[in-house]
Each structure stands twice: as structure tokens, then as C-alpha cells.
Amino acid sequence: MIAQPSRKYPAAAPIALTERRWPANTLSRAPQWLSTDLRDGNQALFEPMNGARKMKLFQELVRIGFKQIEVGFPAASQTDYDFVRRLIDEDLIPEDVTLMVMTQSRPDLIARTVQALRGAPRAIVHLYNATAPVWRRVVFGMNVTQMLAFVHAHVSHLKHLTDAQPETQWTLQYSPETFSATELDVSLKACQTALAAWGVGPQRPVIINLPTTVENATPNRFADQVEWMHQHLVPREHIVLSVHPHNDRGTGVAAAELALLAGAERVEGCLFGNGERSGNLDLVTVALNLYTQGVHPGLDFSDIGAVARAAEECTGLPIHPRHPYAGDLVFTSFSGSHQDAIKKGFAAHDSAGPWQVPYLPIDPADLGRSYDGIVRVNSQSGKGGIAYLLERERGIVMPRRMQVEFSAVVQRAADASEAEMSGATLWALFQATYLQQPQGVPGMVTYGDHRLAGDGQHIEIDVAIDGQRLTLQGQGNGPIDAAVDALGLPLRIHGYEERATGSGSGAQALAIVEAGMDGLPGATFGVGLHYNIVTASVQAMVSAANRLRQRRQPPQTAAQAHPQVMA
Fold it and tell me: At what angle do helices 304-315 and 51-64 cross, to 10 degrees?
């Protein structure tokens, strides 16, 4: 990189728009959508789609709800030509869908294009030529006057050929191809020349398409360019103003949204932003951005996973796991603070009210996504995410202090494994921590059975300690107090909770005991899980006692503490 990049890359000049209106506007309705997946997107692939894959993607685009689909470049590709003919000859075009094809401004290519569309009920012919100074000078060797004559000649030729086929409803789309790098007055002259040559009017509307062929400035500058054209094009009422943003600067979506604020009515792009170089505008993102602002885009992304799989299959391009809305991990949080906020958001959410869940700008269910992957656990995760997963998958609701305790256990295990912890691994770790006898520590108690008498104030507990079977007896003001007495340990009960882990006859009772022991700072939790709540309570007491004894002889590593999990 050079020390003074301004010498090599001068900044784009600002637009002299004295009364710009777009910053105060609001997007309140969906634009017209044009999918160019089968043309622009197809040209950007390592291996362009064959007829079968093009047909599959065409059908997917129709299912999503696109009413205008650019299906190819029939004058440049026999595959595209045959595909267009198949759609027409086999009557595969829905009544509310219009095909668009593209052609360069050459008489033979224009004729071939019109021939490819013979018999179509409706068709948009997209004619373009580069207008920017460096293209005029270096590529075509034209001045502005010559370029305008070039536009007039080729639009007139297209009009002559299409007028000879009145059974088709023809629409011209004209693009000053390098609009974002062209002087505005030159772009306007080129568009007005095309409009005049075509004969724009009430029965002959024209699409004027303004591309950021190479994104070369901030999106607000593009919005200024679009608003300037919006103000100067005539007759504006018979013109559909369209934009075709590319993504060289990574701001294609922003450019499209600001262009819509500036007067554009139509946008062109591809599913998930496929296209040359850094890609075209991502139509999925723009559409769902509108949706999150209360504007239905008129496109169906209620099964975003199916759309993503179809696009990947047809294009051979993977979708990034963090791609907006569609990526596998886009609704997933590993961060502890995020997980805690999401957990609280779900708990407080009113399904009848507006969507207000932290870190989730859209309800994944609206896109056919489940909540299963929203919270996942790794070494960066916190107690909120761990609690969320155990509650969702196992019905285990932990008190907040227990969340803190168990999150430390999970943190040690995650650090040791250096990998994400699945729900199954998390549950195994919970069982090993609270529901199974600790390994390698003498004096641990294994619960066998119990019997209550005296209205629950007397208990006999069958246990095994270091392999020796014993029956312990105790008395108290209830089963928990009696169990403490039977174990004969200096335990202090700080708290007790019980709840069901689900609903119905198959639900188990969950008992949680918080206990302390003389000589040990703080408290420790024990857990019992059983179909009988008293049995679960006694198990929880034994679990807490074992874990308190274990604290006196702590293992050195997570692997030593939970060998069956860490293995």
C-alpha cells in the first residue's frame, strides 16, 4: 500500500444537490424486484449453470414471488438461448411473470435476442452501453456526441425489430452501464436519447436502470445521483426508475436502500448477493430488512433454509454461516452476555405484542428457523446460555446462584476441550456434576432407597459408602431435615426448590438443594431427578453432601473430575 493513496485514488466528487430530500424519507412500501440470478449471477460462476439447474432456480424464483426474472444473455450463450426458448415453447412462464434478457448494443446481437423471445407474451429487453469517461475514451474511442448517436441507433434498431412482433408486449430497459462513474449530465442525455428513440409514453413505459457497475463511492453519493436523475428525467410518470448496485465496497445493500429513498422504484440483484467481483445486491437482505421495519417485501422467505439450499445447489456457491438472515450461525450466540439477554428476552416476550428480543432483529420462526441453534456453548459462553439450553432441551430450571456454579464447571470443560459443547455434552456434564457419584473421592455416598415414617419426620436411607451397604436413620421436621440427620454431616440448608421438568404423566420431579458445610466457605448445590418428589429431594440432599465432601479433596483437572464426559 502506498503512503499517499489520494494520488492514485482520488475521492469521488460530491453531487451538487442543493435540496436533497432522501435523508428525510422513509421506506414504506416494497419496490419492484428483478432477479438477475440466471444472468448476472450465472455469469459470475466458476461453472455456469446448465439447463436443468437454471430451470430449478427459475422455479424457485417463481415460488418466492419474483414477477420479473432476467433469464439470460441469449445472444451470447447457446445454453441461455435454448433455455429462453424452452420457457416460451413449453409454456412454462406464469401469467404474472415477465422474462427479461440482456443484450449488448450490437445490431446482430439485438436481432438474435429478439429472435430468442419470439412468441413470449411479455418481454423486457435490457439494452446497455458504457457511458463513463474512461470507457468512452479507452474502450470505445468515442466522445459524448458519438456515444449519444450510438445509443439512438441501437435503441431505434431494437424498436424496429420489436414493432414487427406486436403479439409480444415489449418493454425497453436501458442502462447507462457505468452510471455511478459517469457525469450526471451525460447519463441524463444518454437516458433521454434512449427514451426518445423508443417513443416513451403512456402505453410505452421504459425502465431506466442506474447501475453501480463498479461501486466507487459512499452510498449517500449514489443516493444523490439517483435523486438528481429522479428530478431531471422526463416524462417521469412513464419511467420506472431502477437501480442495479454492485458490492465492490461492501455497501451494495446500503446503496439500494438509500436509492429507494431517493426515488428509485425497482431494484435488481441476486439471492444472497451472487455476482461478479464482490457480488450484486443481495435481494434477500434488502427484502428482509424491509420486513423488519414492518413492510412486507412481497417475497416469500418463510422457509429461508430451503431457499438457501436451492441457491447453493444451483450455483455451487456456499452461503457464509454468518450471512444476514440465512447463515447457519446468524441467529446463534456464543457470548455469555448475549445469551443472558436473549434468555431474558424470551422469558419476557409477549407473543401478541411487537417482537422485542435482544440481539434478534427478526423472529427466526418467521423464516422457518427453529430456536434450537440460538444459544450454543463454547469457552466464550456464560451462565445465561447454559441455563437456556438446559431449560429448553431438558426442562432443567436452575436458580441463578446455581447457574453461576455450573457455568464455572462448563467453562473448565470447554477450555479443556477447546470446542463447542453440544446440548448432549452439556447434559452429560450436568449429570456427571450433580446426578452421579463423584469419581476418585473416598467417602462418597451412593443412594439406594428410602422409607419414611412418622408423617415424614423419620427416615431410613439405604446407601453404599466405598462399596459398603448401610442403612442410615434420621429424624427431623421433614424429609430433607431427616435426611441431613441420617447422613450425620455438619450440613446447613440454605435453600430448597422443586419443580417438574415437563408436563404430563411422564414428567420427572426436579429437586435442588443449596447447602453449606462447617469449615467450607460458601454453598454448594445438589440435584435429584425422579418421578417421586420425595425421592428426588433425598437424592438432592445426598448429591449436595457428596459435592461438599468433594470440595475438601478437589480434583486437579476437568478431565479428572468428569472423565466420562471429557473422554
Answer: 160
In the predicted model, is pLDDT for residue 291 greater than 50?
Answer: yes
Q: Which amino acid is at 430?
A: F
Mean pLDDT, the chain, whole residue set? 89
CA distance 407 to 412: 9
Burial class from Cβ neighbours inside 10 Å (0-12, 13-18, 19+) for residue 515 reads: buried
Q: Are 550 and 438 in contact (CB under 8 A)?
A: yes
Mean pLDDT of all residues in 523-546:
91
Answer for the pair 270, 37: CB distance below 8 angstroms, yes or no.
Answer: yes
What pLDDT is stored for residue 246 in this prediction? 96
- Encode 31-87 in three state secondary structure: CEEEECHHHHHHHCCCCCCCHHHHHHHHHHHHHHCCCEEEEECCCCCHHHHHHHHHH
Residue 44 grid coordinates: 459470475
Closest CA to 48 of 62, 38, 57: 38
Report the distance separating Cα 374 and Cα 362, nearest Å.
Answer: 12
- The b/e string for 104-114 (b: 16+ C-beta within 10 A; e otherwise) is bbeeebbeebb
Task: For residue range 133-142, list pLDDT tens digits in order.
Answer: 999 999 989 9
The alpha carbon of residue 334 and the mean position of all alpha carbons in its chain are separated, in whole angstroms, by 16
Taking the domains of the chain in order of start, what are their residue ranges?
5-315, 336-435, 450-566
Look at 280 and 383; give whichever has higher pLDDT. Answer: 280
SS3 504: coil
Residues 6+ apart with CB under 8 A from 521: none
Q: Does 566 score more than 50 pLDDT?
A: no
User: Dmax over Cα atoms in the chain, in whole Å?
Assistant: 108
Q: Which CATH superfamily, name and number, covers 450-566?
A: Alpha-isopropylmalate synthase LeuA, regulatory domain (3.30.160.270)
Is pLDDT of 531 > 50? Answer: yes
Query: Secondary structure of 266-321 in the HEC alphabet?
Result: EEEEEHHHCCCCCCECEHHHHHHHHHCCCCCCCCCCCCHHHHHHHHHHHHCCCCCC
User: Do 562 and 433 form a contact (C-beta atoms < 8 A)?
Assistant: yes
Q: For the segment 437-458, what is each residue's pLDDT rounded down to a tens digit?
A: 766 667 888 899 999 987 778 9
DSSP element (H, E) containing 458: strand 458-465
Under a CB-based contact definition with an 8 Å cutoff, are residues 207 and 266 in contact? yes
pLDDT beyond 60 at 561: no
Q: Which CATH architecture has domain 5-315?
A: Alpha-Beta Barrel (3.20)
Residue 378: the pLDDT is 56
Burial of residue 50 (CB within 10 Å: 0-12, 13-18, 19+) is exposed
pLDDT tens figures, 161-204: 999 999 999 999 999 999 999 999 999 999 999 999 999 999 99
State how beta strands 524-530 and 509-517 pair.
antiparallel
